[in-house]
Amino acid sequence: MDTKTSQGKRAVVTGASSGIGFELCRLFAADGYDLVITARRAELLNRLAEDLRSKHGISVKTILKDLGQPNAAEELWTEIRKVGEIDALVNNAGVGTAGPFSNTDPVSIANMLQVNMVALTALTRCALPDMLARGRGNILNIASLAGYQPGAPGMAVYYATKNYVLSFSRALAIELRGSGVTLTALCPGSTHTEFDEKAGVTKLRLFRWLPVADARAVAQAGYVGMKQGRSVVIPGVVNKLLAFAGEMPPRQIALEVNRFLIAG
Which residues are catalytic? Predict the structure, then answer.
């Protein structure tokens, strides 16, 4: 974007140090937003902040926070409120693991639930009252194409969390209709990010056989959709078809297909 149309506005981006969150920060900055960016890795976060300040002349506040910890979202919002009004919130932070549920570390499971669902819900709840009082604001929740699927043996918890994010976001989008505040769910399919590497999915058939998107293109689709007030954004024609297929009966077929794709 070559013109700054949102000067004086401020956005919060969680999970900002890499991937889709990183690219969204660049889009907000290019559009003139001041930023509050948060993640767990200080070096990457500070490097991004310096780059955005120098290129776009905006204010960037960095906050180190592990959203996998209990009450982390509320603590984060207390720090954010000290900066000023928030015009846009991006709930991008997310974690995932692949493998049999019975072999998955219980701590990893709890962390996934906390980051993907609890923190996202809490931050949304923190942001909405002020946005509604002003009659304007945007929330972008990073869901997943997985949210359209009935489940995935081998990634049972992750798919369930993304089902939650999509369901939660769709419902809130309708609740907020006419208020001046919008809520958009971005539902990417496989994307080249650190997330996929850490989750261990890059070796799966799912990643090898289906189109893998560029994080910048996914972020652009989500950003434009948020600005347009769309309730759901699914980047890519193939992903739209997969989302449609995942919701069609019989759902047992989708479960078996997902088991095959995630088996490795």
Answer: 158
